């Protein structure tokens, strides 16, 4: 059975409170703490996206966190302290050299690929529509969302799906609510400030297991997640080899079982 992770607003604010110090430490790390000659990568993520990345007992954890650690080890790299950022700032932080690699449940898209390079895909996902559990609003399709307030996290493909529905005329732009992170979006859903939230299926399932929300229906988007690196960083070839090794060794399947059941 998969672990359940309750990332409420208080936990998220605790996460952000520690982010600044973590980022500063990350930027200063050049060699592994063990004193080895292994080259160090500075990883970046955006907590609040359980079960991929979140805080548990004050510690950063999640599928992406453990997977990248295993991949880096196979590839012969050490990881510096994680830099914890808002999702929208991950790509700018990467291109500006503040971090070396993104592990944040980031979907490989044409738009993002114009700015950064992606590793081989390591996870597939679709989008889900969350509503209040047992509520009167129980949409069965995108058309049923018309006239209702819909939210998503800024910078995500969930936001992209809402924007698509606005462009197609299914939703009104004035009913779209953007949130800094998904825990805040689910807070708004539970309190009635929005009627639905669009989020990646595994993230939506996690909220449905730990909060007073449920999945109404799924939008087939066939997305692939990848690690992000700078376009001129040849180390991505090593990361791909490390990912392949982790998948072949069975470690990948063990992590999937632990975090997704």
Automatic annotation (TrEMBL):
The keyword Signal applies. Pfam families: SBP_bac_3. Residues 40-261 form the Solute-binding protein family 3/N-terminal domain. Residues 40-261 form the Ionotropic glutamate receptor C-terminal domain. Keywords: Signal. Residues 136-161 are annotated as: Disordered. GO terms for molecular function: ligand-gated monoatomic ion channel activity. It is found in: Cell envelope. One of its GO terms (cellular component) is membrane. This is Transporter substrate-binding domain-containing protein. It comes from Halovenus carboxidivorans.
């Amino acid at each position: 059975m998969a672990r359940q992770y309750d990332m409420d607003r208080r936990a998220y604010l605790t996460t952000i409170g520690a982010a600044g110090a973590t980022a500063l430490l990350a930027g200063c790390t050049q060699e592994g703490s063990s004193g080895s000659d292994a080259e160090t990568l500075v990883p970046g993520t955006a907590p609040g996206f359980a079960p991929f990345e979140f805080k548990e007992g004050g510690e950063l954890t999640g599928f992406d966190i453990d997977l990248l650690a295993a991949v880096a080890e196979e590839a012969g790299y050490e990881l510096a302290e994680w830099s914890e950022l808002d999702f929208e700032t991950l790509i700018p932080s990467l291109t500006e050299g503040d971090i070396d690699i993104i592990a944040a449940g980031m979907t490989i898209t044409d738009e993002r690929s114009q700015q950064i390079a992606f590793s081989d895909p390591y996870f597939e996902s679709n989008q889900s529509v969350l509503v209040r559990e047992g509520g009167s609003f129980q949409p069965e399709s995108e058309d049923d969302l018309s006239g209702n307030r819909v939210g998503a996290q800024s910078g995500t493909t969930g936001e992209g799906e809402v924007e698509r529905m606005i462009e197609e005329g299914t939703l009104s732009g004035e009913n779209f609510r953007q949130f800094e992170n998904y825990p805040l979006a689910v807070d708004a859903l539970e309190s009635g400030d929005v009627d639905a939230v669009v989020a990646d299926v595994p993230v939506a399932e996690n909220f449905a297991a730990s909060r007073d929300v449920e999945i109404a229906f799924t939008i087939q988007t066939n997305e692939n997640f990848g690690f992000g690196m700078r376009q001129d960083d040849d180390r991505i070839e090593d990361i791909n080899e490390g990912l392949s090794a982790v998948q072949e060794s069975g470690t990948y399947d063990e992590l999937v079982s632990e975090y997704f059941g």
